[in-house]
Amino acid sequence: MVTVLDAGGRPLSHRDVIAEQRSHAFPFGNIGFDLVDLADEALADAESDPAASGSAGVARARLVRLAGQFLEVFNTATLPFYWSDFEPAPGSPDTARLRRAARWFAERGCRVKGHPLVWHTLAPDWLREAPIGEIEATVRARVRREVGDFAGLVRTWDTINEAVIMPVFRNEPHRNAITRLAWERGRIATVRLAFEEARAADPAATLVLNDFDMSTAYECLIEGVLEAGVRIDAIGLQSHMHQGYWGEERTLAVLERFSRYGLPLHLTETTLVSGHVMPPEIEDLNDYRIPSWPSTPEGEERQADEIVRHYRTLLAYPSVQAITYWGLSDEGAWLGAPAGLVRADGTPKPAYDALRDLVKGEWWLPPTRLRTDGAGRVEVRGFLGDYRLYDDGDGGAALLTITAPGRAETTLRLKGER
Questions:
Q1: If both were cysteines, with which of 113, 207, 273, 281 could 156 make a disulfide (CB 3.0 to 4.6 Å apart)?
Q2: pLDDT (average), residues 52-74
Q3: How many structural domains compose the chain?
């Protein structure tokens, strides 16, 4: 319930006011990998010069269009910090480029997340043969550097990724450095060092333990980490549904199992394909490599239905505090799967429209006329987030933030131009 005062501090009695939503508090995320170059110096004028000629102009136009589609639905961007790509040679991190991208998103009202700090896949080859003590010291320094350099810009990190499989991971003749570290030091010690270094570098950051393994092995790891006194801020659950939609029953069962630790749940990597689903006998999704995996009209309708069902299930569950869809466009999608919400040619799929209609339609308060009572009180109902109230008569306005569910009392003074 809001008590609305005029510019002089008097109750605005029996007057019409307009309430409109400005932002969601809930993080609706997607990866921003495709848009990193939009903030790069070579394409810095993309938005001001979309008609530039040649291949650069085509690239600019594509990115500008994709950026608009991103910002229309999503308010959180995940940026890539895969170590082997981020630092291809020792001492040459891609910090400046990623900072430009982080600022680009932040200036447009997006939260920014980093993925991942410690992961065995895409570990740098130049660290492979180092002694284990040097590996640990280098990993610690890497975590401190990235979190410290991006403090205030990147507010959430997938601090360690897929630690369940980390000590035994092997897809090459010789183990990578991170797998060696986890094998020698153990999973819990490796998790501890990642979280301790990240926490020290930015105490305000949200630090996530992230995994694709939804088996009891992940539960055992979480229990061991918590019993060891490692403070984690959220449990990350990957849901790459290349082999088909989980369905409400399985999704709720997963949420129930992992919510029992009393920590927020982040659905960190969600995908739903709009073509044929991957055969069920494939154990490691990375093993499914085919020349072409097209999106189909039937698959796109199925994807649209499934994304609505999935997001409704997640948003209704109290422990779920963030959802990241893994890929806006089919172009360059992981495994070549048609899991994007936008086709490779830039046109939106039905799933994009369906999700937008939820986030900015059903779950969004458009400009709505409300009437104050004699004491200037009016009820504003909406999702958690930022709102703007203004008097349609004299133009005074004020900002309102709904921070928690349930009824709350606050007073706003309308002032300035609306």
A1: 113
A2: 84
A3: 2
Note the pLDDT of residue 61. Answer: 87
pLDDT band at 51; cut points 50, 70, 90: low
Answer whether residue 418 is part of any domain. no
Beta-carbon count within 10 A of 312 CB: 14
Instruction: Look up the CATH number of the domain holding residue 388.
Output: 2.60.40.1120
- The predicted-structure confidence for 138-159, as pLDDT tens digits, reads as follows 999 999 999 999 999 999 999 9
Q: What is the 3-class SS of the chain, one letter each residue?
A: CEEEECCCCCECCCCEEEEEEEEECCCEEEECHHHHHHHCHHHCCCCCCCCCCHHHHHHHHHHHHHHHHHHHHCCEEEEECCHHHHCCCCCCCCHHHHHHHHHHHHHCCCEEEEECCECCCCCCHHHCCCCHHHHHHHHHHHHHHHHHHCCCCCCEEEEEECCCCHHHCCCCCCCCHHHHHHHHHCHHHHHHHHHHHHHHHCCCCEEEEEECCCCHHHHHHHHHHHHCCCCCCEEEEEEEECCCCCHHHHHHHHHHHHHCCCCCEEEEEEEECCCCCCCCCCCCHHHCCCCCCCCCHHHHHHHHHHHHHHHHHHHCCCCEEEEEECCCECCCCHHHCCCCCECCCCCECHHHHHHHHHHHHHCCCCCEEEECCCCCEECCCCCCEEEEEEECCCCCEEEEEECCCCCCCEEEECECCC
Instruction: Evaluate whether 295 touches 337 at the Cβ level (below 8 Å).
Output: no
Residues 293-317: tens digit of each pLDDT: 999 999 999 999 999 999 999 999 9
Q: Are strands 156-161 and 111-115 parallel, antiparallel or unpaired?
A: parallel
CA distance 102 to 82: 15
12 and 132 part of one domain: no
pLDDT at 50: 52
**Domain housing 214:** 25-362
Q: Are 229 and 300 found together in one domain? A: yes
pLDDT band, residue 38 (cuts 50/70/90): confident
